[in-house]
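Morning, I've got a small favour to ask if you have a moment. I've been staring at a protein lately and its backbone has me curious. You're getting the sequence in one-letter code plus the fold written as tokens. I've dropped the whole record in just underneath, so have a look:
=====
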Amino acid sequence: MNEPHASSPIEDVINLVEHLDGVQERWARNIAAGLNRFLSGETDDVAAALDLKVARGKRGWRGLSVFAARDTAIREAAAKFFPALKTSQQAEALAVALQRYATSAWCIDRQKQECPYKAGDLRAALWLILTRVDYAVAARRIRKILATR
């Protein structure tokens, strides 16, 4: 009985490209083309081959998704816990609550894998915000985030 040999990482990439070449969606062809640039030696940088490089002064795609998740959590917290307030008042109230939480319970809570508070608790919302980006946001920034609802 022939034992299948373990493939190398580069063989896995070659197999992935061959598979993606057979997929009809445009995204698959784009990924295959980028990986082919890497395999052909056009570039030694996979991120560059896949156009994941970030221009100087711009946020990377990972950072953008983290900040987008934080901003969504901020919008949801403002709407849920301060619905009767104007946007600027919501921003101020949320900034105060975030700062207070960040300098107190967050020091212990940041190490927890799961939120220690019930879903309807403001502290649960603050915990979620700070698990996305680990610093309190100023009222001015929260106002800008809320303005893009």
